[in-house]
Design a protein that fits this description.
By secondary structure, this protein is of the alpha+beta class. It is built from two helices and seven strands.
Amino acid sequence: MGAFVISKRFDDQYKFVFTSKKGKVIFTSMKYELKFESEEAIEYFKSNIGLAVFEKHRSAGGKYFFRLFLDGAPFALSRKYTTELRVQKGIDEIVKHASDSEILDFSDNDLVFAD
């Protein structure tokens, strides 16, 4: 099972990543102005995974990646992969595990271990 991890960017906007069960980032979302918008986007994605469209691409450097669209709008961009097979494995993991993945919120930037 993977996880959605919410974080706050340096420009005070929010984003989330979907990580594999091994903790590797599979995709990064678009930016959101408010945290609750990112939370709602995750919940909508989890309940409507069947509407997701994955477009596979190859970069100029020869790496593979995919763009994720939901309801025709850009939703996320994947990390770079070395082969097309690995791209497909990333997509398969999303389809299989996204709907039951947990949401972790690290947007407060609080230290987990105090000094």
